[in-house]
Write a structure and sequence with these properties.
Length: 96
């Protein structure tokens, strides 16, 4: 992955986006594909596994809020009970 602040070419046209904006586009496209399925199945919660070590949680939250403000977003890494049970990836691997 390019260092923060680098620029990458987007896949459409001659648009150039900073890495953070490019990541937002990827998150938005992902959530945009999932939200209609949630709606069609009557599911009101979007789950994601983005860790708290970056802005991915925020990107997923923003994308969900824009696409369907009624959808709740559950991020396990923000849940104190989850974090107490699984403080890291190794604990999750051990659980499996």
């Amino acid at each position: 992955m390019p260092p923060f602040g680098a620029v990458v070419a987007a896949t459409r046209g001659d648009c150039i986006l900073p890495v953070a904006a490019f990541d937002l586009v990827v998150a938005f496209a992902t959530v945009q594909a999932v939200v209609p399925e949630l709606q069609a199945r009557g599911i009101g919660v979007l789950f994601h596994g983005a860790t708290g070590r970056g802005n991915d949680q925020v990107r997923f939250q923003l994308a969900a809020n824009v696409l369907d403000p009624e959808v709740e977003v559950y991020a396990p890494w923000r849940d104190p009970e989850f974090v107490a049970e699984f403080p890291g990836r190794q604990e999750m691997v051990d659980y499996c």
